[in-house]
Amino acid sequence: MVAGLSDRLPSIIRGTEKLLRLAGQAEAAAVVASARAELAEDGSDRFGEGWILRLHLAPERYVSVRSRRATVEKSVREIVNEVLLAEDDHVSRVVLCPDVGGEADGADDAGDGVRGPAGATSREDLLRLLQQQRDLMVAVSTGGPRINDVNQDYVSRRQIIQAALAEVGVADPVPYEDLWAWYGKWSSGDLPSYRSRREYLGELFSPLLAAVVRGPGAGAVSAEPTGWALVDRQLGEARRRLGSATTEEQYQEVGLLCRETMISLAQQVFDPAVHKSPDGVDPSPSDASRQLAAYFTDKLPGDANEHLRKHAKAALELASHVLHKRTGTFPLAAICVEACVSVVNLVAILSGRRDP
User: 206: closest CA among 240, 233, 232, 161?
Assistant: First the structure.
């Protein structure tokens, strides 16, 4: 029977990790995500039907959780047995142990993940942890859970986040060591309304999330004002919405705002009497892609500018591609904003709005 359960172990582990994250137990979820899982029959189980779930951890991660091992083991055991409710099986014991023979299978290869005292954390996991941290800060400051009930979750998650951010060379702009420090900020009168607290956290986390998406060594794309009021307002709103979005629909709204920004940008610079679409099709008033392609062709003519036209075209095509994605996720929405900012900057430069 253990063979059959072992075959299903990867999906069981994924389900356990997901439930732990949804329950706000970030540290236990990170442990499960990075471990090499193994099942064995539990001979001490009085009914002879239980299993031992051993989670082999990279030495660094094992050391980081050793003092809280019993708590983590208990949390994982409770959740994994919820996953197993329909399996007619149960795990009687969860055991964390160091994988001294090498890194846990869940660890990422160098360059693909981020590493710190808490062990290997994938970039996707880091994004999820940052969004969970932001959501918890929003919740406690807008009538949600009591700080005493969730403060340890915040502190544990913060430790993992800071170690992971250090490995990708991204500074942590969140100054609050615990939720009581965050309480001091919002209760001081600086953030009197629920809306002001959400907006503040959006502005705090948005550039951080975008920096993680870009990866190590990538410079930030600035969004300096262009002087075109509607373009600047729409792009600014897209960036703010990105910082506070948590659902697929909200991420799609970010894409919609980027689309409107591109249309407004094209309307500022496209002149049908001067700019001719490269494919010979007259663009409609809302066809920002063709309008801007025509603008780039006019502003960057000749063989000497071919590489610049290719760059402009690539940025425009990327923006157009992600704008029409119907699935809403943070990485897609963040890439959409960055691509939109790049096109806005290109047009602002070519139009003379960034001249000294």
Answer: 240
Contact (Cβ atoms closer than 8 angstroms) between residue 86 and residue 113: no
Q: 80-93: per-residue pLDDT in tens?
A: 988 887 666 788 88
Angle (deg, nearest 10), helices 123-140 and 330-350: 100
Residues 271-297, mean pLDDT to the nearest whole number:
87
Query: Is 38 within 8 Å of 105 (Cβ atoms)?
Result: no
* DSSP category for residue 104: -
CA distance 174 to 158: 9
Q: Is the pTM of this model over 0.70?
A: no
Instruction: Assess contact for 348 and 268: CB atoms under 8 A.
Output: no
How far, in Å, CA of 277 to CA of 254, rounded? 27
The span from the CA of 161 to the CA of 72, in Å, is 18
**Other C-beta atoms lying within 10 Å of the C-beta of residue 56:** 22
Length of the chain: 356
3-class SS of residue 272: coil
For 289, the enclosing helix (H) or strand (E) is helix 288-299
- Dist CA 171 CA 185 (whole Å): 20
Go through 85-105 and write b for each residue having 16 or more CB atoms within 10 A of its CB, e for each that does not.
Answer: eeeebbbbebebeebeeebbe
**Band of residue 354 on the pLDDT scale cut at 50, 70, 90:** confident
Q: Six-digit token pair at 322?
A: 């992600």
Helix (H) or strand (E) holding 29: helix 26-34
Query: Residue 302: is it exposed, middle or buried by C-beta count within 10 angstroms (0-12/13-18/19+)?
Result: exposed
In whole angstroms, give the CA distance from residue 160 to residue 165.
Answer: 9
Report the Cα 127 to chain-centroid distance in Å. Answer: 3
Torsion of CA 23, 27, 28, 33, to 10 degrees: 110
Cα–Cα separations (whole angstroms), residue 1 to 51, 113, 148, 157 = 11, 35, 43, 37
**Which letter does DSSP use for residue 67 in this model?**
G
